[in-house]
Write a structure and sequence with these properties.
- The chain is an alpha+beta fold.
- The protein contains 8 helices and 4 strands, in the order E-H-E-H-E-E-H-H-H-H-H-H.
- It has helices spanning about 15-25, 45-50, 70-80, 90-120, 125-145, 155-170, 180-190, 195-210, and strands at about 5-10, 30-35, 55-60, 65.
- Helix 4 packs parallel to helix 6 and helix 6 (about 155-170) runs parallel beside helix 8.
- The protein starts with a strand and ends in an 11-residue tail after the last helix.
């Protein structure tokens, strides 16, 4: 059977969430970079695959799927059923899903900051946008009290999605270290497969955005 085809952009946190999942499942995939800064997602051949022209997108032997959180849960369910990355226990799975929804909210808040800088010329992060990110991180920090990972004491796809997102926030200046449980979790994930490649992507978008900002340290400096 042919490997899964992955269309992604390394600077994109949702793309990196899928990449991290692929690495942690040790899947054989055929990767194609779609550079959204060059509008490659609008190429007719890609629009034919995904009419919404978004990354990441996968093609699993003709089964096309986009939306990163749907992809990561599908990959585990289809390629490694029973894996603790997306547990079969219905209650544990519900907690993972809840954290994936939290990641969706965090990505909406993060992408609003990215868009304000990239598309609208902002050179600083507006206070209301900071507060939205910090409120979500504060909730996550509370949920993680007394546990090693975001959905309990096992690594799951929710950790991978949030790692892609939170590493980006680190690199664009969020003061993530003030959330002690998240800071400890972030350090804990340094040994997982794909961590370094994810960090490189996060630094790539961080450097790109910082070049347009007056920011030198964190948002709180």
């Amino acid at each position: 059977m042919a490997p899964v085809k992955l269309y992604y952009f390394p600077l994109s946190p949702p793309s990196r969430a899928v990449y991290l999942t692929v690495q942690n499942l040790k899947l054989d995939v055929e990767k194609t970079v779609i550079d959204t800064t060059k509008k490659e997602q609008l190429a007719p051949e890609f629009v034919k695959i995904n009419p919404q022209h978004t990354v990441p997108t996968i093609d699993d032997n003709g089964f096309i799927l986009w939306e990163s959180r749907a992809i990561v849960s599908y990959l585990v369910s289809a390629k490694a059923p029973g894996s603790s990355l997306y547990p079969s226990d219905i209650k544990k799975k519900a907690i993972v899903d809840a954290r994936l929804f939290l990641d969706q909210d965090l990505w909406a808040a993060t992408s609003a900051i990215i868009l304000s800088i990239y598309a609208h010329g902002a050179t600083t992060v507006a206070e209301d946008k900071k507060e939205k990110v910090y409120k979500i991180l504060g909730n996550l920090n509370t949920f993680m009290e007394g546990q090693n990972y975001v959905a309990g004491n096992d690594l799951t796809v929710a950790d991978l999605a949030l790692l892609a997102n939170i590493s980006t926030l680190y690199e664009i200046g969020a003061n993530v270290n003030k959330f002690k449980n998240i800071a400890a979790w972030y350090k804990r994930l340094e040994t997982i497969p794909g961590y370094q490649e994810n960090l490189e992507g996060a630094k790539g978008i961080g450097n790109f955005l910082r070049a347009k900002m007056t920011l030198k340290g964190t948002w709180d400096d």
